[in-house]
Structure formats: structure tokens, C-alpha cells
Amino acid sequence: MVTGRRLSEILKTGELHPKTRYTVMFAGHLKRKDVVLKPYEIPVLVEASVVLGAWHRLRSLVDCSWMETEAIGKTYGEEIGAAVERHFAGLVPGRHGREKLFVHVFRAVYPRLAVYYFCPPGVSDLAYVSTILGHYWTATADEAQQRNYMSSLHYFDYKVGDGAGNIDGRQGIRLGEAGVEVLEVFKPRSERAGEQEVRTQRKEFQVERLERRKGHAATRLRQQTKARLDQMQCELGVRTQDEAISAALDSYYILKQVAELLQPTYARLEMEDPLRAVQWLVSEGNTVQVDQQLGERFHTSFSGVRALLEDASKESEYPVTYLQELLAAKRSFKKSYEKRHQGKDYTRLSLTELRNTKTPGAAQERYRRAVEAIMAYNERVGMPELRWYINPAVVVDLVGGRPADVKAYLESRQEEIAAHHTKYGLTPGYNRRPISITARITVPEWPLEPERNEEQVAEEGPVEAARVVEEDTSAEMWG
Fold first, then answer.
1. Which pLDDT score is estimated for 476?
2. Angle of the 274-282 helix axis to the 241-268 helix axis, nearest 10
């Protein structure tokens, strides 16, 4: 489906090697008995690394090297046909006259999608399809190839639709995405790599006749290069130099893709090569920088984020999605909760009720009462050393809450609180004592009644604004 290759090519004769992020080099084309088509570049419909990994895995699971090519389809055709029907029956319509899908139908589906994704608008879709399917015929004595359009027309019974019954005739809609490149053979001459490409620009395919193959290698290696090749062959643990060279070529194209992906990073960091960019990305210094950024912005670290995700993964296979759903549910509950308490007069609620009401208004009323209680205590206490400096820590100790929210509330009353501190000469050092503020001050359960005057207080008894605990304070004063 994603390579357009025949079943026997996938399972036996074909070879796939990396080229770019969305193309591979394909060898082992099955069509002509008298010629061997040299490796050529084909697009793949998903990332090439995924295709190559799946292909290698399939080859390791199913060994068809000993089978006759014609027997492969007979042996595995029924199983593969069932898999095709299971996965694609709802996506790909069957060919005219056949109800069920079959594996060879993807020789037609693949090139149509490849044209839609990757074919340059200035290139004929017929020429593109002939190229990627390897349709050719020998035209001259020097064995240069021309595209065999007649063979390609057999695979033109599929079109891409627009969802409304019309044909979507666009080409190359993914060109311009990161890592998506035009096939080398369709690039302008100035973009082609190497002089050899320029000399052979009119030869889309090259073949060699089986009877003319020579028994010796055409490549000449210097002694020093030969020694390096022998060393690499030994390190790879392969039997022949051909396997070693093939592995080296694969690595070259993979590293080329890595370098292209890293290019924006090492250019931005003013580094001269991708190796240094990789070193920077995996270095301890970079981890420290990430931790610093997470700490400044979110008050956490990379290890903290990782621990959170690992914990969430115990509940779901997709921890980020799981946490997003929890957050969405909490926000929905919070919105509904606040709506139910909308318009409530928090000044008339008891402190216990305020603690049990999780709304910003209830929290601010708690903070207000705590500040009023501290101020009342500071005004009543006889000894200056027993007074308290008002900051988020002491308010949280008295009535609870998030320190950041308390800080924001105190800032809203900054002038009033600063005047109170100035009046009594209070500094943060006043709070450095071996006793908690809760041992000295108690926020009243019920709010003060502002309309109560002195006569009412005399008749009904005092309303406690702040309870001053009378006890021995010498230890606090001196120790």
C-alpha cells in the first residue's frame, strides 16, 4: 500500500534502502527476464524509516528466499487478501466487476496517492506514475530507457475524490512540508547532485543485460580505503564487502536526513555541524537549561514532569491525554460550582463555611478576616515584641489557602498593610520566633457585626475580633 511494490518484490527479490524522509531506493524490480533495472528512487506514503523498519521485520518473520517467485502469491495470497479486506474495505473501493479487494489493486492506489502527495505540478501524472512503478522499455542500443506509458495506463482506474463526488486533481500537496522532497529525477538540473546526474538527465532508467555482467568489480579502491572498508566489515560482522558498502550507503542517507532535521537547530545556535548540535541536545548542560526554564515558568523540573507522566501512565496508555481530560473535567466542575455560588454574600458565612466553599470569593473573605484579626491583635497587645508582621505565610497558617493567591490579595491592600507596619515598626524579623501565630491569634468563626456600637457591646457582651492568649511570654521574648 505505501510502496506500490509487488508481493514477490516485498517478500523476496526487492531491496529497500534509505534516501530521504519520504523516499527510498528500490532494487529488485520484477518485470523483464532479460534485464535488471538498476535501483531507482520511489516515494513512500508514510515516513521511510517506518517503511524500512516494517520491511526488515517482515523479512525476519517470513523467509521466502528459498521459494520460487511464482509460488509466493499462491502460498500467501489468501492470507494477504483477507488482511487487505480487513484493513481497507471501508477506504478503497473495489475495481469494477470485483466485490472484494486484492493485493495487486494497490499497484493502482499507491501511484494515485503518490501523485496527489508528491508529484510536482509541472510534471505529467502519467510520466510520474511510469517512473515510480518502473515501467520502461529499451529504446536504443546504449540501453538508455524511456518510460512505457502503455503499461502505466493500466493503473489509472483510481482517482482521488473531494468527498462530494468530484475529482480532486491537485498534485504535490505535501511538497513544502519538512523532509518532503521532489524525486531526484524530476528536480531541475541545477539542483541535481553531481555531474553524473547532469550527463544522464535524459536517461530516466539504466539497465544492464544479464548476459553482459562482468565477474569483477568496476570500483577501484586505494589501499588505505580498502583497509578502512575491511575494518568496517569486521565491525559490522557481515560476510562480504558488498554488504559493508551497502550498510555504509544506508547510513549515509540516514545521517543526511538527520543533518537536514538538525540544520535549523545548529544554525540558530551558530554551530558549524549537526554533531555539535546533537551533543548540545543530549548534554547535561542542556538538561540544566531545560530544568531552569521549567522552574522559572512552571516551578518544576524535567524529572518532575517525567515522574508525573509515569504516574499517569499507570491509569492510561496515553498519560498526556489522561491528564488533559482530568484538567478539562476539573475546569468544568469549577465553572459549575462557581455558578451555583454566584451572588452569595460571603461576609455573612462562618469561617467553617468559607473553608468548605472552594471559590475565589470565599478565599478572599478568609484572607480578609485573617488580616483583620492580625491587625486587631497588634493593636490590642501590650508588648511590641508580640506583634506579627503580615505576610502570606502567617495568613496561610491562620486560614489556609494558596500562597500565590494570598500574596495577590495582600498586594491589593498593600498601602493599608504598609501603613499598619509603619505605625508599629513591624518587619519580617518579628515573625522569627519559636511559636506559631495560631498560638497567639484565632480568627473568629463568625464575622464582626459592623452596626454593633459600644452600648450594644456592653449589653450583649464583646464579639471576639481576635483572641489574645494570656500566658507566660518570656520564652518568646527572649529566646
1. 44
2. 70
Q: Residue 459 is placed in which grid cell?
A: 449589653
The rounded distance, in Å, linking the Cα atoms of 20 and 204 is 19
**pLDDT score recorded for residue 441:** 92
List the grid coordinates of 190: 541545477
Which set of grid coordinates corresponds to residue 16? 529497500
CA distance linking residue 61 with residue 63, whole number of Å: 7
* Tally of CB atoms within 10 A around 422: 9
Closest C-alpha to 145, from 10, 29, 312: 29
Nearest to 144 by CA among 210, 212, 204: 204
| Cα separation values, 344 from 220, 360, 408, Å | 90, 12, 22
Residue 306 CA to residue 166 CA, distance in Å, equals: 48
CA distance 62 to 84: 18
Asked if residues 234 and 1 have their Cβ atoms less than 8 Å apart, the reply is no
Domain over 7-210 is classified CATH 1.10.443.30: yes
**What was the pLDDT predicted at 145?**
57
C-alpha cell at 5: 511494490
pLDDT of residue 192: 57
d(CA 238, CA 304): 44
What is the pTM for the complete model shown?
Answer: 0.50
Q: For 95-153, write each residue's pLDDT tens digit.
A: 776 778 888 888 889 999 999 999 999 999 888 998 898 887 654 444 455 667 777 77
Residues with Cβ < 8 Å from 28, sequence gap 6 or more?
9, 13, 14, 15
Q: pLDDT at position 211, please?
A: 42
Partners of 138 in the β-ladder: 145
Residues 6+ apart with CB under 8 A from 395: 367, 370, 371, 374, 401, 406, 409, 410
Residue spans in the chain of domains classed CATH 1.10.443.30: 7-210
Backbone angles phi, psi at 328, to 5 degrees: -65, -40
In the chain, which stretches have pLDDT less than 50?
A: 139-143, 194-214, 450-454, 456-458, 460-479
